[in-house]
């Protein structure tokens, strides 16, 4: 199978290209113009206290609605954006929009304590991430403590200067969470050195928490680890009352998942949570 795209993003038709390759190329071309065409938007998934149901934050989740292809899930276009370098533009747009939305909600009378934004490894390779975040915070006026950046274990372990960037981000007051915790290859020694505030228990451990003894053991271990390292622990993908009950009994009082709310538009967030 011919590789049809150069590193510079220049593309051409290669006769040997498979249907899948053509599809990918088409998606790439569309993706590059998605921001200017205003096809990209954010959804926000509430994060709540299990015992009180109180809103403690939201996670910003990027969405792409293409006029012909419809809604394309991030698992399909984030990897593409990473490969083509478009992730830098996209990541910046997401961060800016997320911070601005926090200020808009505030002005509309909805106080969302904190917003979590996902970062991809490729954004760390750029080097300028700390300046970008600082600029956006200044432009939007959002307090740094109300922004939490989410990175996965593999970002920390495989990105050369991630430790430096993470320390720099911490120094400007931004909070950090480790996403999908427990699924990656990570070193607990690193965890101890990093200014991380939050561990997010991956959804895969929560899914069968009341039936699979291994998942149960892993979830409990992560909760204990968080406790002993003075980190907050939030469970992802909580879909049932049983899962929520299990978490609470084992000392995890923070959750995010369909049981509480699906990711919402900015307007629906306001409608649902505004007093
Ligand atoms: P993630 O950061 O782990 O986000 C959580 C994902 O789980 C979201 O999928 C969310 O909709 C989904 N989810 C939440 N609660 C439940 C539940 O109860 N059950 C189930 N089955 N799923 C639940 P989504 O929005 O499709 O995003 C998938 C992944 O795409 C994210 O995983 C994140 O890694 C990536 N992503 C999303 N937005 C961005 C972004 O702005 N930048 C970057 N770099 N990555 C993003
Ligand atoms: Mg996340
Ligand atoms: Mg996650
Ligand atoms: Mg995930």
From TrEMBL:
All copies of domain EAL, residue ranges: 24-275
Range of residues in the leader sequence: none
Protein name in the entry: EAL domain-containing protein
């Amino acid at each position: 199978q011919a590789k049809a795209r150069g590193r510079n993003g220049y593309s051409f038709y290669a006769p040997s290209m498979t249907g899948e390759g053509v599809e990918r190329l088409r998606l790439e071309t569309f993706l590059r113009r998605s921001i200017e065409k205003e096809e990209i938007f954010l959804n926000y998934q509430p994060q709540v206290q299990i015992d009180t149901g109180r809103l403690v934050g939201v996670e910003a989740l990027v969405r792409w609605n293409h006029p012909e292809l419809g809604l394309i899930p991030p698992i399909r276009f984030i990897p593409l954006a990473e490969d083509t370098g478009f992730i830098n533009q996209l990541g910046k747009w997401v961060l800016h929009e997320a911070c601005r939305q926090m200020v808009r909600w505030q002005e509309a009378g909805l106080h969302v304590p904190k917003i979590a934004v996902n970062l991809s490894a490729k954004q760390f390779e750029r080097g300028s991430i700390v300046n970008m975040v600082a600029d956006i915070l200044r432009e939007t006026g959002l307090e740094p403590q109300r922004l939490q950046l989410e990175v996965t274990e593999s970002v920390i372990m495989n990105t050369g200067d991630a430790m430096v960037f993470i320390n720099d981000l911490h120094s400007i007051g931004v909070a950090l969470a480790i996403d999908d915790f427990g699924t990656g290859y990570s070193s607990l020694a690193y965890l101890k050195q990093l200014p991380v505030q939050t561990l997010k228990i991956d959804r895969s451990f929560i899914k069968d928490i009341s039936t699979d003894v291994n998942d149960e053991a892993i979830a409990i271990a992560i909760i204990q680890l968080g406790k002993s390292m003075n980190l907050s622990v939030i469970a992802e993908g909580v879909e049932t009352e049983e899962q929520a009950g299990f978490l609470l009994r084992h000392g995890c009082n923070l959750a995010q998942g369909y049981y509480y709310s699906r990711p919402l538009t900015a307007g629906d967030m306001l409608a649902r949570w505004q007093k």
